[in-house]
Amino acid sequence: MRLLTALLASSLIAAPVLAEPDFAPAVEADYAAHLEALFIDFHKNPELSYKETRTAAIMAKELRAVGGIEVTEKVGGTGVVGVMRNGPGPVVLVRADMDGLPLKEDSGLPYASTVTQEDIDGVVKPVMHACGHDVHITSLIGTARQLAKLKSRWKGTVVFVVQPAEERIGGARKMMEDGLYTRFPKPDYAVAFHVTSGFPTGKIGLEPGISSSSSDSVDITIHGVGTHGAAPHMGKDPIVMGAQIVMALQTLVSREIAPLKPGVVTVGAFHSGFKHNIISDKAELQLTVRSDDEETRKKLLDGIKRIAANVGRMNGLPEDKLPEVRVGFESTPVTLNDPALTGRVRGAFTSAFGADIIHVEPRQSMGAEDFAYFIEQKHGVPGAYFVVGGTPQAELDAAKRGEKTLPAHHSPFFKVEAKPSVTLGTTAMTVAVLDLLKK
C-alpha cells in the first residue's frame, strides 16, 4: 500500500500541468525558426487601419510560401484571402486582424515600434500594435503552415482571412461587401481568437453567447453663432450646448436603460474654439456607444439624437440649425458565439490540452469586435471567438497584490509574452480546425 501511494505521488509530481497535441513541439520549433522573426517584424512595423499595405503584402507572401493556397489580395481594401483546399468536406474560415493603433509605444520592448504613418484623416501619427494584432497574424501563418503538414488528418477547405481595420470596426464589413462569401467558398464555421493581457499565458477563454458588445461611433456637430467672449448675448455658444449634451447623455444609461441591461455612452473627444476671448461658431463631440442587444442599442442611439436636437431647441437654435448627429460610419453588432460550435471547439481544446486549459472569468468590459459581421444570423455561419492569455500568472498575481500595474490594451505600455501567445494561438487554432474538418 505504501509503495502504491508513493508511486501515485511520484506520478502526480512528474505529470505535466497541461497535456498538448502531438504537433505542439513542431509549433515550438516553427516559432524559433520562422514565426518569432515574423512577429518581431510585424511589431516593429505596425500600420494604421485601411493603410496596412506592407503587412498585407507580407501576409500574402507568407501564405503563398506555404504552398497549396490560392491567395487573393485587396479584398475590401487591403484584406487578404487564402484558400487551402484538401478534398471534399466542410469549409472553415480562420480570421486574423492586422491593423495597429495611433499611439507612441512606451512598452520598453527591445523591438518597440518607432514608426509614424499618415492616417486616413491626413494627420501623421505614431503607430504601435497596442492590441496584439501582431500575435493574431503571426499565429494565422503558423496555423497555415501546420495544416499544410497535417493534410492527412483533415478533409475540406480552410479560408484564411487577413482582415484590415478592426480598430475602426469597418474592415470586416468592407470584406463582406466585396464578396467574401460569394467570391470565395462560403464557410460552414468561422473561428477567430484575440490575445489578452488580462488572462494568464497557457490559458484559453471560450464561452457560448455574447463574446463582444456592439459598438457605434457617433459624431455630434453643434452649429452655434460666434461672437466676442465679452458679448455672449450676441451669439449662441456651442461649448455651453456641448457641455449640456455631455451631461444629459449620462442619463441615458442611468435613467432610461433597465439596471440589469448593460450599456455605455462615452464622450471621447470634445473640440471647439481657438482663443480665450472668442466664442466659437462650432463644437464637435465624438462618442462611442456600447450595448449587448439590438433593443438597447437602438434606444441609446435614438436617445442621443433626441438629446442633441432638444438641447439645440432649448438654446433657441432654428430647426435647420439643430445639432447634427452622424452614426453608422463605424459600427458593429454584438459578437455571439454559437452554442453548439462553441461547445465543440471547447471540447476539442479540453481533449487536446486537458480541462485546465480553460480559463473562466467574467467579462470585464464592453469591448467590441467586428468579427460579428462574418457570423451575423442572416449569413447562417456559426462562429466561435476565443481568447488566449498573454501575461504570465506571476505578473497577474503581483498586480492583484498591488505590486505592479498590468499594461492595458490600447495603452502605450501594452505588451504580451510573445512566444506563449503565438504558440498557443497557433496550436489552439490548429486543434479547432482539425476537429471541425476531421475525417
From TrEMBL:
Name of this protein: Amidohydrolase
Organism phylogeny: Bacteria, Pseudomonadati, Pseudomonadota, Alphaproteobacteria, Sphingomonadales
Annotated Mn(2+) binding sites: 131, 133, 167, 194, 410
Species: Sphingomonas suaedae
Keyword check for Hydrolase: yes
Domain Peptidase M20 dimerisation: 214-311
Pfam families in the cross-refs: M20_dimer, Peptidase_M20
Key words of the record: Hydrolase, Manganese, Metal-binding, Signal
GO MF term set: metal ion binding; N-acetyldiaminopimelate deacetylase activity
Co-factor requirement: Mn(2+)
UniProt keyword annotation of Ligase present: no
Region forming the signal peptide: 1-19
Top-level taxonomic group: Bacteria
GO BP terms: diaminopimelate biosynthetic process
Cofactor note: The Mn(2+) ion enhances activity.
